[in-house]
């Protein structure tokens, strides 16, 4: 006997019409009819309600109905998968929300520090800084630039690692992109012995790092000669830019 026959048997025993049973289970009469003729099966919640209504065990309702048992088993597995998926989605959302909140707190800290140390906002600098996120600071002959990405900008989170400071002293330019990430602009305008402009990665002492990206041996020699010739100026700028970067990302001064 399948579950539809058992529902019908219990309904008749209780002297209920299909419509009355449908009202008790909060379904339509046609739904009850489809159960009883075997066209459809009740869902898991409804099976429990039927079990309670007729005061019979779930085991009695499902026993001998192999198709229903398979259906219930499948739905239970699907429910399990859905729960796992929901848990994963929920976890990802919580992580994203927490991470985004931290980024916003960090961004506010950076902007507060920039204001505290006298940086000018919304400046026109080596890159497009006309959107309210660019900052400039002048100290004597040295000009510093930085850019603060909004925390909500998708794909470009403003984490501490993204804060960089460019320092320019009479067109001698260094870029501090991280605690140990430095580059120097090798410029023809500063030295007529070279006929190109290029930005190269260096260590904190101004020594060339990315030799592979620097071209031929002749070009590498010209770059190294340039770096050695203006080493004192570059190292001084790197040190100053590092200090400015630490001021920006440090504990808020407000």
UniProtKB/TrEMBL annotation:
The chain crosses the membrane at residues 81-99. Coiled coil: none annotated. InterPro entries: Cro/C1-type_HTH, Lambda_DNA-bd_dom_sf. This is Transcriptional regulator. GO terms for molecular function: DNA binding. The keyword Flavoprotein does not apply. Signal peptide: none annotated. Residues 7-61 form the HTH cro/C1-type domain. Gene3D superfamilies: lambda repressor-like DNA-binding domains. It comes from the Bacteria. SMART domains: HTH_XRE (SM00530). The keyword Transmembrane helix applies. Keywords: DNA-binding, Membrane, Transmembrane, Transmembrane helix.
């Amino acid at each position: 006997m399948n579950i539809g026959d058992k529902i019908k048997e219990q309904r008749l025993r209780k002297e209920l019409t299909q419509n009355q049973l449908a009202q008790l289970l909060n379904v339509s009469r046609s739904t009850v009819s489809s159960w009883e003729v075997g066209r459809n099966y009740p869902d898991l919640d409804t099976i429990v309600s039927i079990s309670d209504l007729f005061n019979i065990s779930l085991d009695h309702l499902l026993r001998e109905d192999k198709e229903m048992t398979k259906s219930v088993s499948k739905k239970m597995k699907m429910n399990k998968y859905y729960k796992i998926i929901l848990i994963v989605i929920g976890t990802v959302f919580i992580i994203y929300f927490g991470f985004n909140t931290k980024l916003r707190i960090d961004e506010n800290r950076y902007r507060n520090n920039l204001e505290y140390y006298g940086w000018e906002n919304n400046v026109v600098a080596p890159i497009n800084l006309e959107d309210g996120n660019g900052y400039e600071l002048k100290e004597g002959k040295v000009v510093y630039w930085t850019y603060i990405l909004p925390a909500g900008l998708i794909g470009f989170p403003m984490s501490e690692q993204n804060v960089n400071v460019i320092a320019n002293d009479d067109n001698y330019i260094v870029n501090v992109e991280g605690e140990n990430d430095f580059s120097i602009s090798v410029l023809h305008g500063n030295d007529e012995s070279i006929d190109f402009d290029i930005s190269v990665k260096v260590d904190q002492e101004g020594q060339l790092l990315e030799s592979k990206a620097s071209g031929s041996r002749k070009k590498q020699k010209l770059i190294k000669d340039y770096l050695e010739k203006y080493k004192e100026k570059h190292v001084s700028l790197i040190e100053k830019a590092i200090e400015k970067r630490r001021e920006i990302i440090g504990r808020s001064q407000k």
